[in-house]
Amino acid sequence: MAVDEFDVGEEVELRADFTDAEDQPASPSDVGVSYRRPDGTGDTVELAEEETGIWTGLVTVDQAGRWWWRLEFSGERTVVAQSSFFVRVRRVPEPEGS
Question: What's the predicted TM-score (pTM) here?
Fold first, then answer.
């Protein structure tokens, strides 16, 4: 992810780009993403293949703090990756009419 800070209430796109040993787009046979909120509760996100090798899913962040996500996929090999992003409470309200 290019941006790793979001505001409570935003939809965050989780994206995974898959390539094979020759660095060509590849479609794994099984893709799963789970996440953990700052309070320790969690859930899964369903990903959709947008095009060969690019999978995306959305999660609406509803708590401020550090969110963790974990990606697992299998195909030619099984891979697990994880990272986090930060969610903050918006301090300045959106302009009216936007």
Answer: 0.77
